[in-house]
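Bug: C-alpha cell stream looks shifted between consecutive jobs. Job 1:
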Amino acid sequence: MTTIDTTSNDHQKNSDWYNDPEHNYRDYWKGRGYEDAAERMAIKRLLDGKHFRHAVDIGGGYGRLCIFLENYADKVTLTDPSQQQLDIAKDYLKDHPEIDRQIMQVEQMDFADGSVDLLTIVRILHHIPHPEKAFAEIARVLSTDGYFLMEFANYGHARNRLRHFLRGEDLPKEPVDIRPKAHQTAEYAPFVNHNPLTIKKQLKEAGLEVKRILSVSNLRSPALKKIVPHNLMLAVEGILQPALSRVYFGPSVFFLIHKAK
C-alpha cells in the first residue's frame, strides 16, 4: 500500500495521460453492465424529482452518462481534459448534437460564478489525489440552490476495513496509490482510492455539504457476475445502496452535495 501526501500539491494534471491511442474507454465498459446499471440506479435515486437548467458532466470521457443526464436537465455539457475522449464522444453522441462538448480541467472551468445548477463527477476522482482545488472551483460555479453529485473510489470499503482491523491498523486518511509499483511515477496518470471521511472534510472546507450518501457496486465481483443473474444482482444492489451507505460498504461511494448554508 502506498499513500500519497495530501499536504503536497506539486503533482500537476497532464491531459496527455488520457490521450492514449491504444486505449478506447468505451471498450473498458464491455462486460461491466452491472457496474454501469448500479451507477445509473444511484444517480436516479439521488436526482429523483429534480430538474435542472444546466448539467455539467465533469471528466465524462466519451459521454457515457450524458444521454442519461438529459432526463434531468434542459442542457447538458460534457467536459473532459482529453481531446481523444471528446473525439470518441462525438461519435457516441452523434444522435444528441444538443449535448455540448468542451475540453476543460476541473480545477479551472470556463463557467461563470454560480452559473451551473448540476455538476457531476463519476469515476474521475481516482485521478485526483488532491481534490481541494477542484472542490473550490466546483463551489465557485455551482448555483446557490444547485447540486453536486460525486462518485469516488472508496478505500474504506468493507474488505479494506476488515484487513486493517485484523492488522491492528487505522485506515489511512490520505489517498492510497493503487497503481503497480512500476507505474508510480509522474509519467503515468494517478490512480488512488480515497478515505470518505477525508473527502467529507475537504468538501466542508470548500463550503460544500454532503446531503445524501449511497454505497454503490456493492456486489462487484467477477465471480458473482458469472453465476448470479444480472437482474437479481441489480435487485439486491437496489436494497443495499441506501442500507449500507453509512458504513461505506461498497468500493464506490456516491455523495449528493449542496452548498453549505
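Job 2, same session, no restart:
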Amino acid sequence: MTVRVECGPSAQGEPEPVVLWLGRRRLQVLEVVDRWFAPAMRWFKVHTEDGQLYVLRLDEHSGRWELAALTRQADAPNSAHPASRGPRMSH
C-alpha cells in the first residue's frame, strides 16, 4: 500500500517519520520503535496515535514510501479478545 509520510530529524539528525497519511487519514507518529536498513531501503516500525504499530519502507532511489505491515494494536484494556476477559455468565 502506498502512503504519504512526513519526516522530521531524529536525535542523530537523520530523517524519520513523524506523520503517516493513509489516504485522507492523518496519524501522528508517537514513537519510532525500531529502524533497520537494507541496500537502497530503509525500514521503520512506528507506533501511531491510533494505537497501531506500522512497518514503513522507504525506497531510497525513488523516494517512495510503502506500508509494509500493520503489526498489531497496542495493548489496551478495551482491545483484549473477548475470550480473554474471563468467564461469561448467562441468565
